[in-house]
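Good morning,

Attaching, inline, the backbone tokens for the sequence recovery test we're adding to the shared suite. The designed sequence is right after.
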């Protein structure tokens, strides 16, 4: 052991000398990429508007609950940047449908807190932008079978969500409580208020998920409508553009969707991208049913990719 120690020491010294010889002077080294993230968090407003209602935020409990959701939403950067990109593509259609159905425009933010504007699937079986469970989807005429799932049809599911919201508001007569009912159900909201002898969401103790639900939506509205205040700059992002599309009504079965798409001048990948409610390789139409397929118009971003041109 004692004889080996001088040899080991010499080897270490030699290696150090070689490293020193090959190391570049500091001035000649390539510059490292340095990034810093500044935490930007403006004060909450004293009040805000939602669905035509002024919500006063001087109450300590309301402010702290909203503050929590703004913090958790604003600083989940990867999710929020993706959301801003997708909103540029999908919000115009959602806004149009909300207006046509007579639902306040602020409910477009419900699709963000439900799915982040993605065709999400929850652990309990809810699907789509609006996260319909199978039983509720059937109540609102969204068809589900081995070939299709209209919960993933953006237009139809958005109209179904509007009908649910209008039905709930007809009972509760309050858009804030209607928002809570989208999570808890109308009966659940009524039962909570009944046994607690309250008459509004903000005065009612709810389970953790419903108790946060309205505040998550309010936080989303605050950040989306003033993203620069929270450190996001959509005008500097590569936002996703709305698809340039045309719609075709189909009255006869399509036995092979891939062949059909190729005959239209594109491919099944693009067909499924525009119609995510199509689940298999065919579309069977019975009983005089009709389906509207979304197809690409003259748009470069929807043409088949030619890897060899």
């Amino acid at each position: 052991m004692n004889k080996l120690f001088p040899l080991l020491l010499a080897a270490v010294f030699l290696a150090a000398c070689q490293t020193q010889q090959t190391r570049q002077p500091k001035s000649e080294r390539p510059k490292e990429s340095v990034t810093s993230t500044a935490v930007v968090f403006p004060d909450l407003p004293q009040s805000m508007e939602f669905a035509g209602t002024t919500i006063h935020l001087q109450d300590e409990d309301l402010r702290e609950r909203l503050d929590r959701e703004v913090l958790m939403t604003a600083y989940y950067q990867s999710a929020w940047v993706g959301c801003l990109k997708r909103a540029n593509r999908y919000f115009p259609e959602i806004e149009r449908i909300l207006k046509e159905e007579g639902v306040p425009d602020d409910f477009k933010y419900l699709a963000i807190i439900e799915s982040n504007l993605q065709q999400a699937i929850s652990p309990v079986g809810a699907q789509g932008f609006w996260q319909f469970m199978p039983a509720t989807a059937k109540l609102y005429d969204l068809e589900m079978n081995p070939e299709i799932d209209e919960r993933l049809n953006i237009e139809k599911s958005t109209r179904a969500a509007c009908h649910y919201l209008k039905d709930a508001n007809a009972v509760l007569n309050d858009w804030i409580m209607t928002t809570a009912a989208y999570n808890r159900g109308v009966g659940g909201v009524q039962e909570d208020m009944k046994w607690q002898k309250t008459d509004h969401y903000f005065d009612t103790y709810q389970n953790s998920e419903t108790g946060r639900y309205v505040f998550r939506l309010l936080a989303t509205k605050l950040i989306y409508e003033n993203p620069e205040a929270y450190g996001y700059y959509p005008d500097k992002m590569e936002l996703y553009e709305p698809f340039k599309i045309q719609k075709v009504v189909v009255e006869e079965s399509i036995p092979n969707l891939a062949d059909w798409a190729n005959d239209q001048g594109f491919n099944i990948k693009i067909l499924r991208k525009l119609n995510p409610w199509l689940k298999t390789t065919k579309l069977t139409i019975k009983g005089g049913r009709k389906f509207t397929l979304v197809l690409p118009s003259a748009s470069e971003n929807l043409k088949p990719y030619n890897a060899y041109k």
